[in-house]
Amino acid sequence: MNITFFDKIRNKEILRHVGLLPETEIVIDRNLRWLGHRMDNNRLPRQILYSQLCKGKRKHGRSRLRFKYTAKRNMNCKGTDRDK
Fold first, then answer.
1. Nearest CA among 32, 40, 41, 26 for reference residue 84
2. Apex CA 71: angle with CA 43 and CA 57, to 5°?
3. In which domain of life is the source organism classified (predicted)?
């Protein structure tokens, strides 16, 4: 490729040239792939994933995103229908 450190080339161009996806796309794809796995309702990871917090104080600032909200955002980003 003959690219030096001093060449002003964006990461998107380099990734496109070598045929790789950006890191964000890889993370979204892996997130959605994990979401496709089936798990019994009585398994602890599933109970934690879909649980609601009832009591306790929240920290100041914006609340952290839960996995299901992140997954929903990723599905919208990819244009995936939830029912499929």
1. 32
2. 75
3. Eukaryota
Distance CA 14, CA 1 (A): 9
Whole-number pLDDT of residue 84: 52
pTM: 0.52
Contact 63, 14 (CB under 8 A): no
Say if CB 49 and CB 68 are below 8 A apart. Answer: yes
What are the residue boundaries of the structural domains of the chain, listed by start?
22-38+65-78
Q: How far is CA 27 from CA 21, 24, 58, 64, 74, in A?
A: 10, 5, 28, 18, 10
Compute the distance between CA of residue 71 and CA of residue 34 in angstroms, rounded to an integer: 10
% of the chain exceeding 70 in pLDDT = 92
d(CA 28, CA 26): 5
